[in-house]
Write a structure and sequence with these properties.
globular; 3-stranded parallel beta sheet; alpha/beta; 6-stranded parallel beta sheet; binds 2-amino-3-ketobutyric acid
């Protein structure tokens, strides 16, 4: 039987590009996009779209049954910076949506689940350089708390009920098609748009704040690769560390200046600085590389070329 995929949160930064790629692979009619409201992206017309609130289990199940869905990618979430402003709402959204999907999988309505975790699971007591797959995890943000808890729920549903759930700890994801919202790593997207559109950028993190980052194309590849990997290769059922590059605002600004020499950056750190300071700088993702052959393609130089050549074209 061929797979039919449901994406919850398809209009978000990662959901948009994931939907497009999955439709290319599985065929548009086999990939149902959904979100809490209709987005304006063109891709929505290229296949089925349903309005779903990821906190409404009955509605998710209705759509699962309607399309005979076999896999769910749960991309709806509240990110770190927004979550700090409305912590209980963030907890409800990030946890309830996951538990609904895990329950639907436990009840055997679907066969496979993808759920993203984040580098936010780590806190200031975790090693900052080459942060291991397994280490101390004492996150200081509500987003991080929800991600650590979610990872343990995934592991629990796998061990107790045989649910095939797979997960990655995303670093900051950089893309030009759909902007992120409410994250601490968002500066690394905004900086490219402001460089192209205004020639200057005021950064909300300090110049030496190093964080793990990844270009969208690599993130999408990793996501689909872990979902397609043979079950026996998935040895971690909490979530895999995933890495590509690490840089500071100063380093990305210097890379942009190679293409736009007049580009200027200034720094005005806000509450997001404290969040960034609690996160790792460089992640060790050797488990993902060994277990299911993960490999990234984009470094800072390649990504910068690609970002600057796409922003401002008819593509966005
Ligand atoms: C955020 O900044 O909140 C996210 C993340 C690292 O999970 N991009």
């Amino acid at each position: 039987m061929s797979d039919t995929i449901l994406i919850l949160g398809a209009c978000g930064q990662i959901g948009t590009e994931l939907t497009q790629r999955l439709r290319e692979i599985y065929g548009s009619e086999h990939v149902v996009a959904s979100d809490i409201r209709e987005g304006d992206a063109d891709f929505l017309n290229s296949g089925p779209f349903e309005i779903i609130n990821a906190m409404d289990k009955e509605r998710i199940l209705e759509v699962v049954k309607k399309y005979k869905v076999t896999q769910v990618y749960l991309m709806a979430a509240m990110l770190s910076a927004t979550a700090e402003k409305i912590p209980l709402k963030a907890w409800d959204l990030n946890m309830q949506s996951l538990l609904h999907v895990l329950e639907i999988a436990k009840e055997k309505h679907i066969q496979k689940v993808y759920w993203p975790s984040s580098i936010a699971v780590f806190g200031s007591t975790s090693p900052k350089i080459d942060t291991p797959q397994q280490t101390v995890m004492e996150p200081s943000t509500v987003y991080g708390i929800s991600k650590v808890s979610g990872e343990h729920w995934c592991n629990y549903y796998h061990n107790k009920f045989g649910v095939d759930v797979r997960s990655l700890r995303y670093p900051g994801i950089i893309s030009w098609k759909t902007k992120p919202g409410g994250g601490t790593t968002d500066y690394a997207v905004d900086i490219y748009f402001k460089a192209k559109e205004e020639g200057k950028y005021e950064c909300f993190l300090e110049e030496e704040t190093k964080l793990p980052m990844m270009y969208m194309e690599d993130a999408i590849n990793a996501t689909i690769q872990i979902m397609q990997a043979p079950t026996e290769n998935i040895k971690t059922r909490t979530s895999y560390n995933l890495a590509a590059m690490s840089f500071t605002p100063k380093e990305v600004a210097e890379e942009i200046q190679k293409h736009i020499p007049e580009f200027e950056i200034s720094y005005k750190p806000d509450f997001r600085q404290e969040i960034a300071d609690s996160w790792p700088q460089i992640i060790d993702d050797s488990a993902a590389r060994e277990d299911w052959s993960w490999n990234h393609s984009f470094d800072l130089e390649l990504m910068t070329k690609d970002m600057l050549s796409n922003i401002g074209t008819k593509n966005n």
